[in-house]
Design goal:
With 124 residues, the chain is mostly helical. Helix content is 52%, strand content 0%. It has one domain (9-123).
């Protein structure tokens, strides 16, 4: 579970993978996603309330990790190994995805652009 609400999910997940084992691909993904500079205010036009378990950015980060842990959808999250690390249920993801106030094009464009720039910089 997250030690602090302000903690980046990717740095928390990265602690579970050793540097010298066969998870070098996962380490590369974690390193790239840790370097993303995302702002709740800029992406979602609001900030999370202080009484929620996970911030909007943390839920987005967990959604971004679904393919890495072979999670097909929010329903399958409860059966995954990722579920044991974070105290949330599938309804958190369904509520997040169904929120009509989010500009998904802007969110996807921002994340994609930053990932593209990181991969281009890394390949040089």
């Amino acid at each position: 579970m997250l030690s602090d609400k302000g903690t980046n999910i990717f740095s928390e997940i990265g602690k579970f993978f050793k540097e010298n084992d066969a998870t070098s691909a996962m380490n590369a993904i974690i390193d790239m996603t840790k370097a993303l500079r995302l702002s709740e205010k800029r992406l979602f036009s609001s900030e999370s309330r202080c009484n929620c378990k996970l911030t909007q950015l943390q839920v987005l980060g967990l959604l971004m990790l679904f393919p890495c842990f072979m999670i097909r959808n929010a329903y399958n999250y409860g059966k995954s190994s990722l579920c044991g690390l974070f105290d949330c249920r599938k309804d958190v993801f369904y509520r997040f995805i169904s929120n009509e106030s989010y500009d998904w094009r802007k969110i996807l464009a921002t994340v994609s652009l930053q990932l593209w720039n990181k991969t281009q910089y890394r390949s040089r």
